[in-house]
Amino acid sequence: MDDELAKSKLERYIKYAKNVLKDMVVCPPKDPSLSSKLEYNLSLARQYFEDSEYYFGKGDFITALVCIAYCEGLLDACRNLGWLKYEWNLGGKD
């Protein structure tokens, strides 16, 4: 994959993740130990998101892609457990 294509894809992935982090609805579980796991996973997702932006800015698109993939995976796992509500806005080129 050439750098321009990678850059274009990463810009979209970062935008989508940023929107999810901003707009998601958090549905914390009643069990305090599970609630703390949710908070830990959200913290990791935000850190990976910030790392992706950092590496993107440095032009290290491979590391940025890995970071945003981890961010998205953590968010999806939390959503699959019912702890988050959101939709990925993947339609179009917005």
Provide a concise account of the structure shown:
This protein has 94 residues and is mainly alpha-helical.
CATH-derived topology: Substrate Binding Domain Of Dnak, Chain:A, Domain 2
Spatial gap, N to C terminus: 22 Å
Please tell me the overall pLDDT.
92
Cα radius of gyration in angstroms: 14 Å
General form: elongated
Number of DSSP helical runs: 3
CATH class annotation:
Mainly Alpha
Q: How large is the share of residues in beta strands? A: under 5%
Strand order within the widest beta sheet: 1-2
CATH architecture: Up-down Bundle
N-to-C SSE string, H for helix and E for strand: HEHHE
> In which range does the helix fraction lie?
over 70%
Uncertain segments of ≥5 residues (pLDDT<50)? none
- Strand segment count: 2
**Structural class category:** mainly alpha
Number of domains: 1
Kindly list the characteristics that best describe this protein.
94 residues; mainly alpha; two-stranded antiparallel sheet; 3 helices; elongated; DUF357 domain-containing protein; DUF357; AF1782-like_sf
How does the SSE layout of this entry go?
Layout: H1 3-23, E1 25-26, H2 32-58, H3 61-80, E2 84-85
Helix pairs in contact: 1-2, 1-3, 2-3
